[in-house]
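Re: that chain you flagged

S.,

Sorry for the slow reply, it's been a week of failed gels. I finally had a moment to sit down with the sequence you sent. For the record, here it is as I used it:
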Amino acid sequence: MVHAMLAERNQFVPASEIRRIYNMILGRDDVIDLTVGIPDFDTPQHIKQAAKQAIDDGFTKYTHNAGFIDVRQVFADKLKRDNGIDADPVSEIMATAGGMGALVLANLVLVEPGDEVIYPDPGFVSHYAHVKLAEGKAIPLQLKKENGFGVTAEGVSKLVTDKTKMLVLNSPNNPTGGVISNEELKKIAELAIEKDFYILSDEAYEKFRYDNEKPLFIGSLPGMKERVVSLFSLSKSYAMTGWRIGICTGPSEVIGAMTKLQEHVIAMPTSISQKAAAAAVEGSQDCVKEMLDTFKERRDIMVKGLQQIEGVDLQPPGGAFYVFPDVSAFGMETFELVMRILNEVNVATVHGSAFGHFGEGFLRLCYAMSTESIEKALQRLDTFLPKLLRKSK
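Prediction finished late last night. Pasting the structure tokens below so you have them in one place:
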């Protein structure tokens, strides 16, 4: 019998704790699922129609490893219009297999073994995993409740060393909903230039912002074009999680290296998804506004309901579709609290420690679901958590 001798890197890449909870409740229709960030909207009709048309028109073969050039031109127009980023569709833009495809490729082409990469904690678990996959040294940047879970230049500067290769940004942030202010973004850009490091900007939730400040995008700021890799996923903005398509832009040298590596990993993103993505970003954006308005309404319901529950401390998130309440008052590890909630009232949440060491003491609840389900979940939590709080004192 041959024993599996797995490569050592497997030991350092964590499995998703979100999926751990999600897998526990698969097939259970008695559970209200607040775990995985999947918009409950269907992909808009004009996007689906573009995919069907692409099939009928024979766009079913290999494309350039960076994607169809006409699709990349559409992406270039989107980047200029929405994000203020000037990018050459030939050499500075590529289509990727969702935001995730861009994240892993960027890490593999930029990070050398031993390079330090600063990443947000609590944050999207794959940010850490990809640094470890590239054999870099992952340096957690604590996102603090008192700062609205936004990254600050001061916080970053305390972690920068002569080994710092890259900073990962994610605004709005998963899991907290925290947003980096434009003022801080400018300061972070100045710091990157001064200390000479790259920035990997994960813009997966670019459309999901609830404040009135028109956002800046760090790749558009002066002096940043040659040191920022920005990725834009269509998964959340257009309810296309299963289509696995994203946009990535950055310096031509970096995009060229990522394209070469993509050739050996997936060849290119699905041709049909590329055509659908072009229809998404150049077509009517009414579908995005409708989604955003709905999510804002749901956010307000979730925030108001949780704020009224004894022992729960929550400030409204600035973006995305998650809330990240402080539940440290219950005096137990958050995974234990998650399991108590699941077993007692059939509501599935995610423990904050699933998103890094500094997430302990918090829960993540996703509100990408119907208002009816949110209100039912809040009722269940309100019947259980105050009783649990009194028992813990």
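What I noticed first: The mean pLDDT is 96.

Talk soon,
D.
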